[in-house]
Specification:
- With 484 residues, chain A is of the alpha/beta class.
- Chain A is built from 17 helices and 20 strands.
- Chain A has helices spanning 10-26, 34-42, 58-67, 112-123, 145-156, 168-182, 185-190, 208-220, 240-261, 288-303, 322-337, 357-375, 386-395, 402-411, 424-429, 435-448, 457-473; strands at 29-31, 46-48, 53-55, 72-75, 81-85, 91-93, 100-103, 106-108, 131-132, 161-163, 194-198, 205-206, 224-226, 231-232, 267-268, 274-275, 309-311, 342-344, 348-349, 354-355.
- A five-stranded parallel beta sheet of chain A has the order 9-10-11-13-15. Chain A has a four-stranded mixed beta sheet with strand order 2-3-1-12.
- The two termini of chain A are 46 Å apart.
- Chain B has 211 residues and is of the alpha/beta class.
- The longest helix of chain B is centred in the first third of the chain and has 21 residues, at 33-53.
- The two termini of chain B are 29 Å apart.
- The chains are: A alpha/beta (484), B alpha/beta (211).
Chain lengths: 484, 211
């Protein structure tokens, strides 16, 4: 039996969805994009071009829900399937778009070399299934920072990429980088390589860029994750149910835009809601209510027939400390129990502004334990039990029993060296290392043992050409040097 | 790969059947029993010990190797002088007075045997007198005392004290271990060594026995 957690009963889910639909059909959604307004208008929505408001209809919403797929698969750079984003399958990906990294206790701006190390590290972490464009290298022009991250990701790590475009124009470059890897638009559609995060703005609005990204992705068959971010008590009702209504309205409006642009296009019903801590004017991502919001909207997404995503399983701590551990583990555990299909969290600190390679190594272990947990408790040659107990009483232990040897690896997961399970004497003999020290050692080891990507040289060089041209457009003659 | 190396690698794989087959093959080929024991089984077990110490293999692999070794040794015994397997030393082991938890002690015993020691296992709930008498009777140079309970740890000191009282200090050495035991505790009660796990116990006993 797969263990599950639920926060909403069936009636409440239906009530929240009905309320959100009502909002979309009465108050409407504000969209700062004439092309998208046109698209919705063409399909029967009531558009006010002056206020840029559009009132959806139940028919439009039902049409979108009838074409949206209940799942999709992702493929790595080599074209191998890595994800089945359906049912209650759980996958982890590092959280994305930080502006800082935590480098040996110091928070600083990340550079290209940091990004390359990050991509290499993600390659070696077995419980992190996708990479993400996790932070923004500060040594390239801001205008290319989104496409440049994807470029580096595709060069140094084979795992699929959770990413996003910061402008409408950047989408084209990011699409072309993917086409270079896959070879054709048909192949990219057949084997999606990336997921684009597209964020509505609270309350119930879409900017020109993000709504256009939703449309452009849909037309190419590139998966989109909708990242609605109601802030409970600030830019959304303070109650969890109230924020869920807003989240549902914002996400449903994205689904409608996406499915009208490309019926059947793959999507994740995602989000990054948070409560608002009025004491510090911050949006704690590691708060339990934030995590409850994530799990609850995932239930709504599944009820509507979509695979789900959440930004959770990370922390607001500033260092790799106990708060970082407990918030991350609690978020990851709840999200996995809720069956959220893509969990974007590992590595992140400080309200999604700071990535840490050391934390990523620790979080990989949290993900591993969480994935073990959701496999649940299954009987394996446990009945009848007399023979095994006879053996135990006779031999006084079962360390080398056939039963133990057959089931040890299925039943028990053994974490890497970052998790300390030695007795204190052995821990001291091994150097008495702190969690940070053990994680730093593991980061170093994994980066050093990185296997270069299988991406062919001609593809790499084509991508290099594209990216250099893009950099020159914004005044940078050569891309920052990289050590392979 | 010659048969001695093959015995070693089968031992590391914990393949008792293969070890027995190879040992029999070597016997049939006229290889002296001592040579099979030393160059095949003992040297194979030594590698297992190193791999275990370096955390490259784990307890079950060591136990399987020890079982495979026994399968080979049983075939050699009748061919060895006096039917005895030569050992590198004798060790008396048991759990502390009042303590019935013997799994840790048993593991240490298996590991010590694997390393070439003769082990006199007194079982559990062993008095200080029995420990010291058994060491004297058997000629063991090391007494190993194991405890799981904080309430029985104190009786470890009785063994150490009795060794001193009988003037055997330096002649019979003591080593303690078990979940609640620490290096500090071992120092406090005057034990000669402390093993934090089965592999470290073997290393410590080797050092105490001077082998």
């Amino acid at each position: 039996m797969r263990p599950k957690v639920t926060f909403l009963d069936e009636d409440l889910k239906i009530k929240i969805i009905d309320e959100a639909r009502h909002l979309l059909c009465t108050l409407g959604v504000e969209i700062h994009n004439t092309r998208v307004l046109g698209l919705l208008g063409d399909h029967g929505a009531e558009v006010d071009p002056v206020t840029q408001h559009v009132r959806l209809t139940d028919n439009l919403i039902d049409l979108a829900l009838s074409t949206v797929p209940s799942g999709f698969k992702l493929y790595d750079v080599a074209g191998r399937q890595t994800h089945d984003l359906s049912g209650d399958n759980v996958h982890f990906t590092p959280s994305s778009a930080a502006i800082n990294i935590l480098d040996n206790g110091t928070i600083r701006k990340p550079l290209t070399a940091d990004y390359v190390n990050f991509a290499k590290l993600v390659s070696g972490l077995p419980h992190i299934h996708a990479q993400s464009t996790a932070f923004i290298p500060a040594d390239v022009p801001e205008e290319i920072s989104d496409s440049y991250r994807l470029f580096l990701s595709l060069l140094y790590c084979e795992k699929p990429v959770v990413t996003g475009a910061f402008t409408i124009e950047a989408f084209d470059v990011m699409r072309d980088l993917q086409l270079a890897v896959r070879g054709s638009a048909e192949e990219l559609r057949a084997k999606p390589l990336t997921i684009f995060s597209c964020c509505p703005t609270a309350p119930i609005k879409w900017s020109e860029t993000t709504s256009q990204n939703v449309v452009d992705c849909a037309r190419m068959g590139i998966p989109v994750e909708f990242i609605s971010m109601p802030l409970a008590g600030f830019m959304a009702p303070v109650t969890i149910v109230g924020s869920l209504i807003q989240h549902t309205a914002e996400t449903l409006s994205g689904v409608v835009i996406n499915q009208l642009a490309g019926p059947g296009a793959p999507v994740l019903y995602g989000g990054a809601p948070a409560i608002f801590d009025i004491r510090y004017e911050t949006t704690p991502m590691g708060a339990v209510e934030t995590e409850m919001l994530d799990c609850a909207y995932s239930e709504i997404g599944k009820h509507l027939g979509m695979p789900t995503q959440a930004y959770t399983g990370f922390s607001d701590a500033k260092q790799l400390d106990a708060q970082a551990g407990f918030e991350t583990a609690m978020g990851a555990t709840l999200a996995a129990l809720a069956g959220i299909n893509s969990i974007s969290g590992p590595g992140m600190l400080d309200f999604i502004t700071c990535q840490s390679l050391e934390k990523l190594v620790l979080d990989n272990e949290i993900c591993g334990q969480t994935l073990r947990m959701v496999r649940g408790v299954e009987p394996r040659e446990d009945f009848p039990s007399t023979p095994i107990f006879e053996e135990l009483i006779r031999d006084k232990h079962l360390l080398i029993a056939d039963h133990t040897r057959r089931h040890l690896r299925d039943e028990i997961t053994f974490p890497g060296p970052v998790i300390d399970r030695a007795n204190s004497s052995r821990w001291l003999e091994d150097g008495g290392l702190s969690l940070h020290d053990r994680a730093a050692k593991e980061v170093e080891r994994l980066i050093a043992s990185h296997t270069p990507s299988c991406l062919p040289a001609e593809v790499r060089s084509e991508m290099e050409g594209m990216m250099t041209a893009e950099a020159r457009r914004f005044g940078m003659d050569n891309l920052p040097g990289r050590s392979e | 790969m010659d048969v001695m190396q093959e015995i070693g690698s089968s031992l590391r794989n914990g393949d008792a059947k293969k070890v027995a087959e190879l040992v029999q093959q070597a016997i049939d080929d006229g290889v002296p029993a001592e040579e099979i024991l030393n160059n095949g089984l003992m040297s194979g077990m030594k590698v297992v010990g190193v791999l275990f110490r370096d955390h490259e293999i784990f307890l079950p692999e060591v136990l399987l190797a020890a079982r495979a070794m026994t399968a080979g040794v049983d075939l050699l015994k009748p061919l060895l002088a006096g039917g005895d397997v030569p050992t590198i030393g004798k060790v008396v082991i048991g759990t502390a007075k009042g303590d019935l938890h013997d799994i840790g002690k048993n593991l240490v015993g298996i590991m010590l045997k694997g390393a070439g020691f003769e082990v006199v296992d007194l079982g559990n709930d062993v008095t200080a007198e029995r420990f010291v008498d058994a060491a004297l009777d058997s000629g063991a140079k090391v007494i190993g005392i194991s405890a799981l309970l904080t309430t029985t740890m104190s009786s470890m000191k009785d063994v150490v004290d009795l060794v001193r009282e009988r003037g055997l200090d330096g002649e019979i050495r003591t080593i303690v271990g078990g979940a609640p035991v620490s290096k500090d505790f071992a120092d406090e009660i005057g034990a000669d060594a402390y093993g934090y796990d089965a592999a470290s116990a073997v290393e410590q006993v080797k050092a105490l026995a001077g082998v």
